[in-house]
Amino acid sequence: MENGNNAAASPEEVRRSPAFGWAARDTSGVLSPFTFSRRKNGENDVTIKILYCGICHSDLHSVKNEWQNSVYPIVPGHEIVGVVTEVGGKVDRFKVGDHAGVGCMVNSCRSCHECAGHHENHCPGMILTYNSTDVDGTVTYGGYSDSVVVEEHFAVRFPVGMPLDRGAPLLCAGITVYSPMKRFGFDVPGKHIGVVGLGGLGHVAVKFGKAFGAKVTVISTSPSKRQEAVERLGADAFLVSKDPDEMKAAWGTMDGIINTVSAAHEVTPLLSLLKTFGQMVMVGAPEKPLEIYAFPLLLGGKSIVGSIIGGMKETQEMIDFAAEHNVTADIELIAMDYVNKAMERVAKADVRYRFVIDIGNTLSAA
Questions:
Q1: Could you tell me the CA-to-CA distances from 87 to 65, 139, 149, 251 in Å, in that order?
Q2: Would you state the pLDDT for residue 2?
Q3: Strands (DSSP E) along the chain, which ranges?
Q4: CB atoms within 10 A of CB 158
Q5: CA triplet 192, 323, 234: central angle to 5 degrees?
Q6: Where is the Enoyl reductase (ER) domain (predicted)?
Q7: Among residues 222, 195, 196, 219, which one has the least CA distance to residue 207?
């Protein structure tokens, strides 16, 4: 066309609200200041001024394109908490000034069987909070930024008194362990739950297990974590998985196991810890295939199942339960300009137990 003024606006131009954050631009994963834009608040939307955002191990995988699906520039972050600054005309669950969060997804088809059953996390059309294609054709940007616009249905209300910084990681780590614990009946008082791995997911699983009234045993390859697990986090017992005598003493004692380990590890020996018909739930995601022998599954009718986050109804339920029972993540609060160092430490598992970026006080466009 001769007249450029008649050209159709690009999808990015339709997002006319300016935004600022930190993005990775290539597989080095190095994050740096990034100016972009978000869509304006629609009639079903809430706009949230971001105050805190947790760092998930998924963020590290994504900025380095380790899953071979990253679209650069990429603004990570799906453990977002802040204050509502604008609401659309059809919004009825939030008002300006409310505390709200955004987890791992920002939309879904809303019409399939999974969505109808409140399992939006299993919807084939689920749209992730970052590095995903939004309904308007643009790429979604995450919470390492100053604001986010999201449909009301995918925002989580934070109860009054819930610590925002320590509550932020629950939007990923919390729902990841809460959902299978509820689904498989591990939330019944008196149940014996094993938690494999004591990291970002594992330490939250211990806390939810105790809040449910369960007996919780932490299973780890590191004897040095015994005191931390029992004395500080409140686990009832600690089991060194490399110790044959400790493992044998615990055979057939556990109703279920939450396996949070993302590194390659032996799974078969853990099955011996389960009671008849017990389940081991995989919530960690090792990159390489796991070697599993059939007989430990056949003998006792045991099973290995997987779980990934949870639907929006369940995520709200989880946050409300956490607020009522004082379940929060143990965090290290950092400034925005520390994020690249934090990523290096995440890669080394050198954090106890979750980094949270103080967006509200340390993100600056200057």
A1: 34, 22, 10, 54
A2: 33
A3: 17-24, 31-38, 45-54, 80-87, 99-102, 105-107, 127-128, 147-151, 156-157, 192-196, 215-220, 237-240, 254-259, 274-282, 303-306, 331-334, 354-357
A4: 25
A5: 35
A6: 29-357
A7: 195
CA neighbor of 204 nearest in space, from 150, 167, 256, 158: 167
**Which tokens in the block code for residue 278?**
């017990």
For the chain, count helices (H), then strands (E).
13, 17
Q: Is the dihedral of CA 11, 81, 263, 22 positive or negative?
A: positive
Q: Which two tokens stand for residue 37?
A: 């834009």
Identify whether the C-beta of residue 96 lies closer than 8 Å to the C-beta of residue 87. yes
Whether 37 shows a pLDDT value over 80: the answer reads yes
Answer whether residue 7 shows pLDDT above 90. Answer: no
Name residue 99's beta-bridge partners. Answer: 83
User: Both tokens of residue 128?
Assistant: 């992730």
Q: What are the pLDDT digits (tens) for 319-335?
A: 999 999 999 999 999 99
Spatial separation of the C-alpha atoms in residues 361 and 333, rounded to whole Å: 11
